[in-house]
Amino acid sequence: MFTDKTHTVNEDNTVCEVSEDHDVLVEMESPPEDNSLFTRQNDPYKPARVNEILKLVQIGTDLSDDKQQQVQELITEYADTFTLAVSEVKHVKGASHILHIEPTATFSTKVNQKPLTPSQKEYLHKSIDNMLAAGIIEQCDPAKVKCVSLTTLAQKAHAGEGLSLEELQHHVNEECVKHGMDKLFALPPRPNHQH
C-alpha cells in the first residue's frame, strides 16, 4: 500500500513528492527514456550520462558565468552521486528504518481513494512499476495489509505561478527585518508591493 505522501507530475515531466501539509519534500525529474544513460553502478562518469545530469540540474541565473561554470565542473566531478532513475539509487549500508508501533495498535484499512484521471493513473502505475522493479516496494497479500492511506497527485508547489528569485529574496529580507536582523539581499524596492 502507499504512504500519505503525494507525488506531482507536471507538464515538463518533473515529479515532486509532497507531504500531507503540502510541504515539498523531494523534487526529481522523470527518468530519461534512454536506458543506456543508467550507468551509475558501472560507468558513473559516462559522458552522455554526465551531460544528461547537467541538462537536468537547474543552476541559478543569479550566478556569474564563472560561478555557473564552477557549479557545472563540481556536478561533473561528483556525477557518481547523482541518479537519473530510482533504479540507480544505492542502498546505504547499515541504514535501517524501524517503526516502533504497539502490537495492539490498529489503523484504517478502508480504501478511500479519490478517482484519478487517466493521465494520473498512467503516471502512478508507471511509478509503481519502476519502484517494484527497483526493489523499493514489493507486492503484498491484501490480507496482510495493516494500514491504508490514499494517494494524491498534486500540482508542484512552485510550478507555473511560483515566486521569482527576487520575490523570494524580498520575503527573506522581510523575515530578517521582522526578527531584528539585517537584510541579506541588496534589492530595489518592490514595485506596487502591498502588505
Outline the secondary-structure elements.
Blueprint: E1 6-9, E2 14-18, E3 24-29, H1 47-56, H2 65-77, H3 118-134, H4 165-178
Antiparallel strand pairs: 1-2, 2-3
> What is the number of helices?
4
Helix content: 25-40%
Q: Roughly how many Å is the radius of gyration?
A: 21 Å
Average pLDDT taken over every residue: 76
Succession of helices and strands: EEEHHHH
Order of strands side by side in the largest beta sheet?
1-2-3
State the low-pLDDT regions, or none: 1-29
Strand fraction equals: 5-15%
Report the biggest beta sheet as strand number plus sense, adding barrel if it closes. Answer: 3 strands, antiparallel
Structural class: alpha+beta
> Could you tell me the number of beta strands?
3
Global shape = extended
- What is the CA-CA span between the terminal residues? 44 Å
Detailed description of the structure:
It is built from 4 helices and 3 strands. The chain has about 200 residues and is of the alpha+beta class. The protein has a 3-stranded antiparallel beta sheet, with no helix packed on it. The radius of gyration is 21 Å and the shape is extended. Mean pLDDT is about 75; it is low at about 1-30.
